[in-house]
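Reagents: none. Just compute today. 3-oxoacyl-[acyl-carrier-protein] reductase.
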Amino acid sequence: MVKNLQGLSAIITGGSRGIGAGIALELASRGANVLITYQSASSQAEEVSAKIKALGCEALIVQAAGNDKEAPARIVKAAVEKWSHIDIIINNAGAGDDCLLKDMTYDLWDKVFNTNVRLATFLVMESMPYLGKAPRIVNISSVMARMGGAYATAYCASKAALEGVTKVWATELGQSHNATVNCVNPGPVGTDMWLRDTGADVLAEWDIKMKETPAAPRIGTVDDIAQIVAFLASEESRWSTGSTVNANGGLCFV
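Predicted 3D structure written out:
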């Protein structure tokens, strides 16, 4: 493995499981020191942290619930106290709704938007004074931002918003901070959350769509996504910014 992130510091929200954990380990395998956040399962975060350290990199874990307004400042403080600067931010923490429009509530709407958009926004804002020489910011969107679908009013809207602010941040942070800001849009990925939290009706609907995926008739893997994110976090991606990158096997072209 090429150590193209050697000595860089990375923040990965929601890095204790699923896609976030896969990204954390991939970045560490390339030499990055990694701070991961978790919402409630500290044992999972500690397990990922141990794996990062086993790869020869430093690891930090910080609790950060999506609705916690103090979380962004707390995350940045921990990273800066340890490494003095922040090179990579992966806004991966996410919440879904799996809720029909007729059943939508204000509490559910706020939960999804606070986690998927507000946490990412204020984390980047708090990080601005401490960004490194060539920072890389990657936002994790979803095919649902463009494809839509039942049960996902708040989720679709929040991921579309995240793709929108990606363009804004690329413009604002480009020349001023020498930063690139990109987004990836996975389709279904075989994580524990997907298998546990997705209803039978939704799974049946996606099963039909996955058979039509151009790259291969299958569900995505965590490594599929982690490899794309790792590229966007590296110097090799320096001429790509403001983009939403296909990370779904062609299920949703962008």
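The longest strand covers residues 131-140.
Action item: order primers for follow-up constructs.
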